[in-house]
Design a protein that fits this description.
LimpII; 511 residues; single chain; glycoprotein; 12 helices; transmembrane; 4-stranded antiparallel sheet; membrane; elongated; 32% helix; transmembrane helix; alpha+beta
Length: 511
């Protein structure tokens, strides 16, 4: 065997080995499985894991924006005209939400925590001064009290007299700060001495700055990565009319399991809504160069019981089942006729937005969404949007309501946003790059094998076309030297054959 033949044989063995090993690793997905197992182990709510510290104290800044609906035709509205509103905002606050009293329970399979929220006003991101900007809107304390006593003739008569003596009407004009963080209401102050359970102060965010919603208990995900961050229990009562409606499903929106699929439905438990909602895949997006799946709540989430029978359990009573796009949450608002929706009644029946002049539901500005990295489940951008409305209508015993039509009146909507910070984005980029390189390393072997394949074919073609040069070799060559060369060539070729045999044995398990 000549040196040329030996070289061709060696290139062929290396080429075949690279292709066999590479294709075998691609088909069996050995490296991808290793990466996935590593992610499942690292992304858990356990001491020392990659995500535990950032879960306790999230580094990306969270911003809370408040938009108010100012009534511009108050006199006409009170005598039955269609209300006209103008949107005022945003008034932006930086939200701090570290978890406190973090404690492992149930042999470390669950972790309990409290999450107090603190808000700091950001004038540079706001349209004005909340201390001086005035908003005219529905008098929520008055409406709440009237609904509370409407079934009692004596109580309703007494409250009506108080409202007249205190000059309390169906509308009120207050500063943004008062509406958000609280003010002493004259009607509530009159009732408070007789019923201490009723606070004399009112505000849409009253007592929420520096407070928490109660104790959450989360699954760590150590036993099953699909349960990572899922809420196990929450301090609260069974509020709705069916067992299914009272179930706590999903996470609190800050953590999701790794290896997300486009076909799955993600659940989020919201204390503000007193229930869990679900979100579905909408499209692929990129945030700071990071790939993400966008999940959004579909129309079914707040659909009427006629459109989605599963939502019948969220009716306060059969008579209080509202239409698509609305959720009455009076059961967790001390009986106040509070109705939640998406901003401008987005995804709701058109009759609700048409009943108020000045509303214009637009997907881009009013949709709630979550952009999650599918490999790690890390939220890299999110916008939670919700609107607070008050149900108003004619109430027997209160002449001030005699010209009112039943209306879902918008008061304020919030936009809670977060985008991954640059430091966290850089770390996630590095993690995803490492995972990609390890997962795709078998393709490198296949690529090298593919490169050597044309080289191998070229060498074979070159051998078949070259003339036999042995006849031109002088006969005076020493036979001893010729045998020594033949022995050396044979030894080298035998070595390559032995190497091939060993490589075949080592890669046989892949086939």
């Amino acid at each position: 065997m000549t040196r040329r033949s030996c070289a061709i044989y060696g290139v062929g063995i290396v080429c075949a080995s690279l292709l066999i090993i590479g294709i075998g690793l691609v088909v069996t997905q050995v490296f991808q499985t290793l990466i996935h197992n590593r992610l499942k182990k690292e992304i858990t709510l356990t001491e020392g894991s990659r995500v535990f510290e950032t879960w306790k104290n999230p580094p990306p800044p969270v911003f809370m924006q408040y938009f108010f609906f100012n009534v511009t035709n108050p006199d006409d509205f009170l005598v039955g005209a269609k209300p006209i509103v103008s949107q005022v905002g945003p008034y932006t606050y930086r939200e701090y939400r570290p978890k406190e009293n973090v404690t492992f329970v149930d042999n470390g399979t669950r972790v309990s925590a409290y999450q107090p929220k603190t808000f700091v006003f950001l004038p540079e991101r706001s349209v004005g001064d909340p201390d001086y900007d005035m908003i005219t809107t529905i008098n929520i304390p008055a409406v709440a009290v009237m609904n509370k006593v409407k079934d009692s003739f004596w109580k309703s008569s007494m409250v009506s007299i108080w409202m007249n003596s205190l000059h309390v009407g169906m509308l009120m004009t207050r500063s943004v700060n008062e509406l958000l963080w609280g003010f002493k209401d004259p009607l509530l102050s009159r009732i408070h001495p007789m019923n201490p359970e009723i606070d004399e102060y009112f505000g849409l965010m009253y007592k929420k700055n520096g407070s928490n919603d109660g104790e959450f208990v989360y699954h760590t995900g150590e036993e099953d990565f699909m349960n990572y961050g899922r809420v196990a229990t929450f301090k609260g009562e069974s509020l709705w009319t069916s067992e299914q409606s009272n179930m706590i499903n999903g996470t609190d929106g800050s953590a999701f399991h790794p290896l997300l699929s486009k076909t799955e439905r993600l659940y989020i438990f919201s204390p503000d809504l007193c229930r869990s909602i679900f979100m579905e895949f909408e499209k692929d997006v990129k945030v700071k160069g990071l790939p993400a799946y966008r999940f959004t709540p579909p129309r079914d989430v707040l659909a009427s019981k006629e459109e989605n029978p599963a939502n019948e359990g969220f009716c306060v009573s059969p008579k209080e089942c509202l239409g698509t796009g609305l959720l009455k949450v009076s059961v967790c608002r001390k009986g106040a006729p509070v109705v939640m929706s998406f901003p401008h009644f987005y995804l709701g029946d058109e009759k609700y937005s048409n009943a108020i002049e000045g509303l214009d539901p637009v997907r881009e500005h009013h949709q709630t969404y979550l952009d999650l990295n599918p490999t790690t489940g890390v939220p890299i951008r999110a916008s939670k949007r919700a609107q607070i409305n008050i149900l108003i209508n004619r109430i027997s015993g209160f002449p001030k309501t005699k010209f009112l039509n039943e209306t879902i009146f918008p008061v304020m909507f919030i936009n809670e946003t977060v985008v991954i910070d640059d430091v966290s984005a850089a770390k996630l980029h590095k993690l995803l790059l490492t995972a990609m390189l390890v997962s795709n390393s078998p393709l490198v072997l296949v690529g090298l094998g593919a490169i050597l394949l044309p080289v191998f074919i070229g060498l074979i073609m070159a051998v078949t076309t070259l003339p036999d040069v042995h006849s031109s070799v002088p006969i005076s060559f020493s036979m001893r030297r010729h045998r020594r060369i033949e022995n050396t060539v044979e030894l080298k070729c035998n070595g390559i054959l032995l190497l091939k045999e060993r490589m075949d044995q080592n890669t046989a398990w892949l086939l």
